[in-house]
Write a structure and sequence with these properties.
Elements: E1 4-7, E2 23-26, E3 34-37, H1 43-54, E4 58-61, E5 74-79, H2 83-92, E6 93-101, H3 114-119, E7 123-126, H4 132-143, E8 151-154, H5 160-168, E9 175-177
């Protein structure tokens, strides 16, 4: 898997909010056996799971912390948290593994033991957004229901505080939507 990307997309055809909440956008090229996805309950994590499965990969996930993944090597790790999760992810990769990162929620600065990088011949890939062709491809996959947005709940604007608290307590699985 060369890259996984994500964009927000709103359809103008009357599709309900749950169906327009989140559109994952992949790059072709994945032939890996095992992909690890951190924060599987997040919007981008749940999208990454679907994309990896659609590409024929075996997926393992974590919810709530990187420590739950200890002892399970992966060919690809999709990491969008940053901080210590990024650092731990490098040690969890198999030889010639790839670490894809597209976020830094838990911290933008990381410590990297370069010995893992060169002795295991690892690749670190940064990814941010996709192009129009990728967006069109992902929309087709949503239309034929091969990919589905995962939304936890819809909150009215007046309940923004409750929605935020739900996210902070990690009670959601998928996107929290405010129409």
């Amino acid at each position: 898997m060369n890259r996984m990307r994500a964009v927000i997309f709103r359809k103008h055809d009357g599709t309900e909010a749950l169906d327009q909440a989140y559109v994952p956008v992949p790059q072709p090229g994945a032939h890996e056996v095992l992909v690890r996805v951190y924060a599987a309950g997040s919007g981008i994590g749940s999208a990454a799971i679907q994309i990896a499965k659609l590409m024929g990969c075996r997926v393992i996930t974590t919810v709530g912390g990187a420590e739950k993944a200890a002892g399970h090597g992966a060919d690809v790790i999709f990491e969008h948290i940053g901080g210590n999760t990024f650092t731990k992810s490098v040690t969890c990769l198999n030889k010639k593994g790839r670490l894809l990162t597209c976020g830094a929620t838990a911290g933008r600065n990381v410590t990297l033991d370069l010995r893992y990088l060169y002795s295991k011949q690892l690749s670190v890939i940064g990814s941010y957004m996709g192009g129009l062709a990728e967006l069109k491809r992902i929309i087709r996959r949503m239309e034929d229901e091969r990919l589905r947005p995962v939304a936890d709940r819809i909150y009215p604007l007046a309940q923004t505080k409750q929605a935020f608290q739900r996210m902070v307590r990690r009670e959601n699985f998928g996107k929290i939507i405010k129409p």
